[in-house]
Structures are given as structure tokens and as C-alpha cells.
Input
Amino acid sequence: MPNSPNTLYDFVVVSNRLPVDHVVEPDGVTSWQHSPGGLVTALEPVMHGVAGAWVGWAGQADLALEPFESDGIHLIPVELTTDDVENFYEGFSNDTLWPLYHDVISAPGYHRVWWESYVAVNQRFADAAAKASAPDAIVWVQDYQLQLVPRLLRELRPDLTIGFFNHIPFPPYGIYSQLPWRTQIIEGLLGADVIGFQRVADASNFSRAVRRLTHYPTKNAVIEVAGHYGPRRVLAKPFPISIDSHSYEKLARDPRIQKRALEIREGLGNPKTIMLGVDRLDYTKGIGHRLKAYGELLAEGRINVEEVTLMQIANPSRERVAAYMQLRDEIELTVGRINGDFATMSHQAISYHHHGYPREEMVALYLAADVVLITALRDGMNLIAKEYVASRFDEDGVLILSEFTGASDELKRALLINPHDIEGLKEAILKAVSMPKRERTTRMRALRKRVLHYDVARWSTKFLEALEHARASRHERISTVDSPTEPERPVDRMSADT
Ligand code: G6P
Output
């Protein structure tokens, strides 16, 4: 039954995107589509298990929507204007923070008007979360687009227990320190009680930034924060994210999906080996490096298209940001060249698809793929690696995985590669193509053990346990402290005119 607009929630998730996107087709017909990216993939199953609300943007500018239910989840839309989309989303989130946090693979832009918009939109998300939260609720804020929300929310609602999870890497201080607003972001995050990262390295990069930019002492995972309704203890540590592994395995066991996998193989001319790449079309994914290695192997005659085909799914992403437009041109030029040079009448070299596909089709692709190639130059986790492994209940298939992904910390029995080392990547492809069945099984079995055990339910349970613990300690402190600490006045350092 739909809840009234005044219902308050004990558990609230806040992320830039809602799990569904409002899409207007060229003929004017509107529909709801599944949102892209790993964040939504991971959080959706978590939300199905709890009666909470999800605050986020519906993916289209200037769209004011009332809260609604979708697939059993209560969604609270936050509106972004055309200007917000340009400055907060495409600008500061995806042309400043995204490249900065991914090793400056593309040059970040530092524009004051983007920052002003980031502050204003973060405030809007904090207001919406404050309005939806019951007294003493838990609020879980997600990802780099909303790093100021924990603090803004604490200023509005000191009764809440606030978590933050960063789905992307947190960069080393030498890179992070380029950011003109580096201190405000750290102070924004420190409004949370628990801050989660994908990798050990991300958490230690963050602690180092805290030491360099604030006076707060850090010891292991604990930061002692003064002020901000403090003194408070903030926990900052790794909680590597995962997927709903069993649901992938279940789909893979469905005979209709297995039949579809055979059709896909047939459609490609039944080559001996199908290699698969699946990525948002993003410069962090190293798609060009992958194409280079494959193209060189064909040129050198070490593989041929009748035997080894590459299927590349490139999910459209952030298409109005210049760096993404340029990437698309480069990738599509390279695909065209490789196909022009090497395709035969019966076999393409690269089967290229600039689309997203529903989960059923993805699982069929995973079953059809003998090798999955993940060549990211930097990636918080990379859930495609886990989806492939979870789908391969037949214990077959080879995963080639970049060591610059969070997933490589866990999936050690993949063929780990450095995507910058094109010769090494070529050797790994040759090894994957000719790997004996026994070795494929031993490796896949070990990978599956990890992915099936450490699934997204475990991830969220661990994070939420840490938040429950933080809430209990806060209650304890409040009941033992005689006079509450003076609330700190809203801090000028967070103002937009820096
Ligand atoms: C990554 C980010 C998410 C983001 C997704 C899709 O997974 O961590 O926060 O939502 O990419 O990107 P988009 O810009 O389309 O939301």
C-alpha cells in the first residue's frame, strides 16, 4: 500500500540516482528504465529486504515528481534543474570528482560555479533526507556526488545515525590535494558516523587526507572528530561491495537463458572462443587498451577471427560530457578499423553494441563468454567481474582482471593483468584462450567460493552492523554526559563562495 507523503522512515538511503530512470522516448512516450551502474545493481536487493525509503534523482532535468512506490521500494525524487545537471552532475560530479578520484586519467576541471552548484544540490538532498527520516533513524548516503550530505544532514538532524559509502576509489593525497575544496569535502564526509570504502588503500588514502587537512587525530580506523555535535568517533574502513550472487546463479540455471546463450554463440558464427567486454562507455575502463591488445594479436596472426571473437557491450554514459564524447569517437573508430582490417564474410572481429541490456540477457552473455576481459585503469570495485563469476555455475570460463580494480583484492585466482602493459595483456589473452579445462575449473571454483559467500547481503549487513554499533555508542554517551555539547554554528568553510 502506498505510504502517505508524511510517512517517516527508520531507514533511508540517499544516492544521486534512484534505481529507475524517467525516460522520454523520441516519440514523446515516457517510461521507467533501470538506472545504469554498479551502485544501483548493488543497493536494489538491499532495499528489497527492508521497509525503507530511497531518496534520489529520476535521471531527467526539470522533473518534479511526488514520492512513489516502485517494485516495493518507496522512492522520494529530488529534482535537478537543467543548470544543476550541467553544473552539479556533468560538471563537478563527473568532470571534477570522477577524473580526480580515478587517478586523473582525464584532466579534472576546477570551476567555482560547478562547486557552488555541488554545495546547493547536496543541501537539497540533505533537506529531503532530513524530511523523510523518523527520529533516531539510520540514513545511508552513497557515493561521490553527495559527499557534503553527511555533515549538512547532521546539522539539520543531530539525532540521526549517518553512514556514507564511497563506491569509487579515494585517491592518494598527492592527487586529492589538487582539489581547491579538499578541506570542505573531508569535513562534509566527517559528518558521518561510519565511512565505508571499497579497498584498504582507499580507506588509508582518506585517513591520510584527514591528517593533512584537519587536526583530528586518527588511530587505525577511528577518527576523533571535535566540533560537529562532537566530540564524536568516526569509523572509516573498507567494506568491499558485492552483488546478489545467488540471483545471478539462479538466472544462469534457467534453461531459457541457457538456450539464449547458445543462440548468441550461433549468432557470432560459433567461434571456438568468445571474449566479452562489458562496461559503461567510460575512460576509466581501459576499453582502448583491450582493443589494442586484441588488434595486435590479430595483426600478428597469433589469433584469427574465425576462432576468437570479441564482443564489446558499451553501455552509453554521461554523453554530454566532452571527455565521454571523445572516448566514444575513439573507440568506435578503432572498432571500425579492426573490423575493416580483419573481419571475414562469415566472422566479425568485434561485435560492438552501444546499448545497455536487461539482466537476463547479460547472464546469457556471461554463459556464452569463454573469457571476460576487464581492463579498467582504475575502478572502485567492478561488479561485472563478480556477475560473471556468479553466473558460471558450470565452473567454466576465464576471468582476465585488471589489478587496478577493487575486485582484484578478492578475486586472486583470476588472470590478473596490468592493462598498461599491452604485451602482458596479450599474453594473458593467449593464456586464457588456450587454458586447459582443468585449470579453468580450479580457478573458477575458487572465484565462485568468494563471490557466493561474500554477497551483497553480507556487505550491507556488515555496514549496517557498524552503524547500529555507532548508534548504540551515541545513546550510551548521551545518557552518561550531563550537559550536551553546544551545537557548532554552521561552518563558514562550507560556504559556496570559497
Ligand atoms: C558508477 C558510480 C555511480 C553512478 C554510476 C552510473 O557506478 O559509482 O554513482 O550512478 O556509475 O553513472 P551515472 O553518471 O549514469 O549515474
